[in-house]
Amino acid sequence: MRTQVAIIGGGPSGLLLAQLLQRRGIDSIVLERKTKDYVLARIRAGVLEQGLAGLLEEAGCADRLHAEGFSHDGTLIAYGDEMFRIDFKEHTGTPVIVYGQTEVTRDLYEAREKAGGPIVFNVEDVVIHGADTNTPHVTYTVDGTTQRIDCDFIAGCDGFHGVSRKTIPADLRREYEKVYPFGWLGILSETPPVSHELIYSNTPRGFALASMRNENLCRYYIQCSVDDNIKDWSDDAFWDEFKKRLPADMAAKLVTGPSIEKSIAPLRSFVTEPMRWGRLFLCGDAAHIVPPTGAKGLNTAASDVHYLYNGLREFYETGSADGIDAYSANALSRVWKAERFSWWFSSLMHRYPDQSDFDQRMQIAELEFLRSNKAAQKAMAENYVGLPY
Ligand code: APR
Ligand code: PHB
User: Fold this and answer.
1) N or C: where does the chain have the smaller number of CB atoms within 10 Å of the terminal CB?
2) Is 353 a catalytic residue?
3) 296 is catalytic
């Protein structure tokens, strides 16, 4: 087979890139290791920056987002007996949209199928060949048969555990990682949200987050130990602990119910450089991971797609390679800012096992400063709603 762009990975990065290219008449083939249902069963975050919403509009996949997503003009931060609001509208004029990543992925699959764009599921043994030449190709097996795709470019959108990053010679790669000494225990419950805006809560018992998907579907998280086992956390145990980490007035009106999904996720910051090697370009989790505190995972994957899509479009429409040659630098510049914000917000809102009293007072002083200082709130709001592309 031959295509212009071989896309490895049928997650949100790969599908968004494929859809944007398709609308500019640029062909691609998406290779996905799992089934569509498996990909859609993964519960991920749900706060979208305007940049991502704009790309979904350009990709013709924003109708349901606008019909069912919630526009949030602010968020709430709680610590001790304090709770204050970061007003995105006041500080940036820009809201965020609360709409599940699973729904974004579902909309992208629908658009891809409607456009008749090829997706090959259940692929195995994906190997990238000749990425450092002008005639790369990809081989893979499906149903036991080996297939080959010749292409101009390869987009590695295959997440942290994919093959693309590892295809870049180790001596050319520089990797940065920070593993946090705690995880997030998250549940999904068909209950009305305790608050119409998200609540990020720092308590002596640890962090908690109250988020939502719709008027009757909540996504709640508590900081837990990395050694915790999901079996140790009954729904009742979760609700008891969650209540203790909410401001009293919120806890009093919390509606509880059975969880329909419950999982523990580790927290990690990770970046690999460069994000390009010859004709291979890394996007999203294949190149970087952020702790979920700042809701930057999907949004930073989207900015990668923005730079790569525009670079490829420029290449095919004008012959200029300027955009693709600047891809790694442009993408990494925004990635590191998202990494910094996610690290800063995680450090501010979580309790560390080895935290000293002085560290603790530093957190409180930083929260006090954020609560009382407009410039600090503006900086947080600008990062939260999304820095310009
Ligand atoms: N061949 C084909 N597909 C693969 C391979 C492979 N060797 N390895 C992994 N994949 C697929 C995975 O099954 C997955 O569906 O690549 C896809 C990668 O999708 P994601 O992990 O969702 O990564 P990305 O599309 O970059 O989306 C980033 O996902 O994890 C969240 O917080 C993260 O929100 C961010 C978003
Ligand atoms: C979520 O809704 O799952 C969510 C929201 C905000 C975050 C992280 C996760 O910071």
Assistant:
1) N
2) no
3) yes
Measure the CA–CA gap between 269 and 342, rounded to whole angstroms: 8
∠ Cα 325 328 333 (to 5°): 125
Neighbours of 68 (CB within 10 A): 14
Ligand 1 centre distance from Cα of residue 9 (Å): 6
What is d(CA 140, CA 144) in angstroms, rounded to the nearest whole number? 9
Residue type, 169: P
d(CA 69, CA 13): 20
Is 350 a residue of the active site?
A: no
Residue 292 appears among annotated catalytic residues: yes
Which ligand 2 atom is the nearest neighbour of the CA of 345? 10
pTM listed for this prediction:
0.97
Q: Which of 12, 72, 99, 327 is catalytic?
A: 72
- Classify residue 26 by burial, with Cβ atoms within 10 Å: 0-12, 13-18, 19+: buried
Ligand 1, closest atom to CA 9? Answer: 16
pLDDT in tens, the chain (389 residues): 899 999 999 999 999 999 999 999 999 999 999 999 999 988 778 999 999 999 999 999 999 999 999 999 999 999 988 999 999 999 999 999 999 999 999 999 999 999 999 999 999 999 999 999 999 999 999 999 999 999 999 999 999 999 999 999 999 999 999 999 999 999 999 999 999 999 999 999 999 999 999 999 999 999 999 999 999 999 999 999 999 999 999 999 999 999 999 999 999 999 999 999 999 999 999 999 999 999 999 999 999 999 999 999 999 999 999 999 999 999 999 999 999 999 999 999 999 999 999 999 999 999 999 999 999 999 999 999 999 99
Pocket of ligand 1 (CB under 6 A): 8-14, 31-34, 39, 44-45, 101, 123, 126, 157-159, 161-163, 284-285, 297-298, 301
